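Dear colleague,

Thank you for sharing your sequence with our group. We've completed the structure prediction you requested, and as agreed, I am returning the results in plain text so they can be pasted directly into your records. Please verify that the sequence below matches your submission; if there's any discrepancy, let me know and we will rerun it promptly.
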Amino acid sequence: MSGCNQGGKTSIKSICSLKERGIVRKTLRMIKKVIICMTMIFSPFLIWVILSLNRELIVIMANWDWFSGTFPLLFDALGEQVNTPEFARGFNEAALGGLLTLLGVIVTVWYYQMVRSQEVAEKRLFVVDELLDELKKNKIMVEDIQNGDTEQYQQGERDREQTIFVTEAWHKLGGEVALLPRRMYLRLSVLYACLNRCVNPDVYWSNKAVIDRMTGIISDLHRYRSTLSKQEID
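Please find the predicted structure tokens below.
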């Protein structure tokens, strides 16, 4: 009984720790988004403050007697320029033009990033849907082979080098499959390598250990698809 109680407590603790990690990740992700938004909104103001401080620093240096005594030619000419209203007006106009340019660059980069993220998410959904449809067909074929119904999968002499499984979507998608998480991509690569070896039902049994993991991969793809759908909604 004590062993069962300890096992139950351990499982409860692990579940709680997983929930806490999920909450922490979501919180950190939200804080990151807030920081990025605040930086984008207030970056022109911060830069304006820095430029204003630089302008005042130039005025102070131009009017400092030590600089005028050490570099008389430079700071006498500079002092004549910085102590006029035209200098402040010209400095402010140049700073404002630079800030408007910076703001345009920030908005352009942000918009491109948003559009790019949306396109990548849509491509990932398309890849997952295509692979799910194909893997479900292959799963039915595996169940037929396990039940001994292999007559329909016997190939003629012409097609003996071709796999009996459906791998068209995998080859058609090509490099777009690399948009999936690395671990999932590697598992799919190993699975499809084994599927491509099965030129007849008998070869399935030598690759059974890997091909039978197809059910777990399908479940992982469904979970990954649900996370992509949530991100699109958010």
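Summary note from our side: Residues 1-6 have pLDDT under 50 and may be disordered.

Kind regards,
the structure core
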